[in-house]
Design goal:
This protein has about 400 residues and is α+β, with helices and mostly antiparallel strands. The protein folds into two domains: about 240 residues, no CATH class; about 70 residues, no CATH class. About 20% of the residues lie in helices and about 30% in strands. A seven-stranded antiparallel sheet has the order 5-11-10-8-7-1-9. A three-stranded antiparallel sheet has the order 2-6-13, covered by helices on one side. Strands 3-4-12 form a three-stranded antiparallel sheet, with no helix packed on it. β16 and β17 form a beta hairpin. The longest helix is centred in the C-terminal third of the chain and has 22 residues. The radius of gyration is 31 Å and the shape is elongated. The N and C termini lie far apart (about 80 Å).
Length: about 400
C-alpha cells in the first residue's frame, strides 16, 4: 500500500483472498521452517474482561460482544475467539494487523487469539493489566500450551487489495483502486486432529476448508508474517507472538498459573490463592483450573496492603541488618582515608601511600583522623573521632 501524498487525503485498504486456498507441506519454505522455527510451548495471558472467552474464569464474567451476543464457550475449548472465521477475509494483512493493534477493538472482531513464546513477557502483560489498565481485571491467569505437534505449511492464493480514499474537502468523492496479487505465499501452521504417522512434509496437499472440516486448527507466527508476502507490520512487543485461529482446545494446556495481583503462582501448593483487589472474593480452584466465585469466603482485611504479602514471598528488600550497615560504614570510612592519602602523597613523608589498592586502604598509623557525626531525630547529635590506627589488626 502506498501512503497518500496529500495529508488531507484519507485512504483505507481491504484485502480478500480468492481462488482455492491451497496448503502445501512439502515445499522448501515449509521444510525449512520445520527445522526448529517453532517453540514447544507458548503462553496465553487472560482475564475476566478479555475479548477472548476463557475457561479459567466464570462464564458470568465473560464480556458480551455486540457483534456476537449469543457466543458460548464450547466445553472442549480453553480459549475461544469472538470473531467467526472467514478465511478469505481473515487471512489477510488488514485483519491480522487489526488484531495486533489494541486500539482497534470496534465492530467485526477477528478470530485470532494471541500467545507468546516468552513466559517473561506473559508475566509482564498480566502485571501491566492488573496495575495500569482501565479495565482493572482481577482474575488473571497465564496458561502454558503445548504446540509441539503443529505442522508447517504454505498457504497459496490470489489476493485482491482495494484502496478507498477521499480528501477532506470532497468526502463524497471516492478514489477506488484495485490491485491483484497472484500466487501469494503465506506461512501457516496446522494442528491436525488425525493420526497421521508419516513425516510432516509427506502430507498430501489440501485446502483450508479440508482442515477446518476435519476439526483442525490454524496457527500463525507473527515473526514469519512480518517477512512474508503479506508484510505484516508489528512492533517489538509482538516478537515471538503466535496467533491461534478461532479456538485453543483444553487438550493443549500444560499448566495454568494464576496471578493474584502480586505473584504468579507457577506450581500447585496448599496455599489459598485469592484475587487481590477484587471487589468480590474469587479463589483459584486447582482442580477445575479456574477462578471460583466464593461469596461466603471471608475476605482478608489486608488484601489492599500488598507489602506484608510481598514480604512473606520475597522478603523485605529494604531491610538491612546491623552487621551489613556496620560493614558498609567501615568500608566507606576506610575508602575516604585512602582517598585522602592518595590526594596528599609525599614520597618523603609517606612512601607507602602510592601503593594503596583500589579495594582497601593501607592501614598504617598516621598523624590524621576523621570526625564522624551521627544524627537521629530522636537522639542528640553524637560526635566521635576515628584514627587509622584504630583499625589496625
Amino acid at each position: 500500500m502506498t501512503l497518500p501524498q496529500d495529508p488531507k487525503e484519507r485512504a483505507t485498504t481491504s484485502s480478500l483472498l480468492h481462488g482455492p486456498l491451497r496448503l502445501n507441506f512439502s515445499g522448501e519454505s515449509a521444510r525449512e521452517r520445520a527445522k526448529g522455527n517453532r517453540p514447544d510451548k507458548v503462553y496465553r495471558w487472560s482475564h475476566e474482561k478479555n475479548g477472548t472467552l476463557a475457561s479459567n474464569v466464570s462464564r458470568v464474567k465473560h464480556v458480551v460482544h455486540a457483534d456476537n451476543q449469543d457466543l458460548i464457550l464450547q466445553d472442549h475449548n480453553a480459549f475461544q475467539g469472538r470473531g467467526t472465521l472467514q478465511a478469505p477475509l481473515d487471512f489477510t494483512k488488514e485483519r491480522i494487523m487489526k488484531h495486533l493493534d489494541a486500539r482497534m477493538t470496534g465492530p467485526n472482531p477477528t478470530p485470532f487469539i494471541s500467545t507468546t513464546s516468552r513466559l517473561a513477557l506473559a508475566e509482564k502483560k498480566v502485571k501491566h493489566l492488573h496495575d495500569k489498565t482501565r479495565k482493572v481485571p482481577r482474575c488473571l491467569v497465564v496458561t502454558s500450551l503445548d504446540i509441539s505437534k503443529i505442522v508447517p505449511a504454505t498457504l497459496t492464493a490470489n489476493m485482491t487489495t482495494t484502496t478507498n480514499g477521499h480528501t477532506t474537502e470532497h468526502k463524497d468523492t471516492d478514489h477506488i483502486e484495485e490491485k491483484v496479487y497472484d500466487d501469494l505465499e503465506i506461512p501457516i501452521w496446522v494442528l491436525f486432529q488425525d493420526d497421521y504417522e508419516g513425516p510432516a512434509h509427506e502430507r498430501p496437499d489440501c485446502e483450508v476448508n479440508d482442515v477446518l472440516d476435519a476439526g483442525g486448527i490454524f496457527w500463525f507466527s507473527v515473526n514469519e508474517l512480518k517477512v512474508s508476502d503479506l508484510r505484516v507490520w508489528a512492533g517489538d512487543d509482538h516478537r515471538g507472538e503466535w496467533l491461534a485461529v478461532s479456538s485453543i482446545p483444553k487438550s493443549l494446556i500444560v499448566r495454568a498459573m494464576p496471578f493474584d495481583g502480586m505473584v504468579l503462582h507457577t506450581s500447585k501448593t496448599a496455599e489459598v490463592i485469592q484475587a487481590r483487589g477484587s471487589p468480590e472474593p474469587y479463589l483459584w480452584n486447582h482442580d477445575n483450573v479456574c477462578w471460583d466465585h466464593m461469596p461466603g469466603h471471608t475476605k482478608h482485611s489486608d488484601l489492599a496492603d500488598y507489602r506484608p504479602y510481598r514480604d512473606s514471598k520475597f522478603g523485605d528488600k529494604r531491610i538491612n541488618d546491623d552487621a551489613k550497615i556496620a560493614a558498609a560504614m567501615t568500608e566507606n570510612i576506610m575508602t575516604n582515608f585512602k582517598r585522602f592519602r592518595r590526594a596528599n602523597i609525599d614520597d618523603a613523608v609517606r612512601p607507602d601511600a602510592a601503593n594503596d589498592l583500589d579495594d582497601a586502604a593501607t592501614r598504617t598509623p598516621e598523624n590524621m583522623s576523621i570526625e564522624v557525626v551521627i544524627t537521629d531525630p530522636l537522639l542528640a547529635r553524637h560526635r566521635f573521632v576515628l584514627r587509622p590506627q584504630d583499625y589496625e589488626s
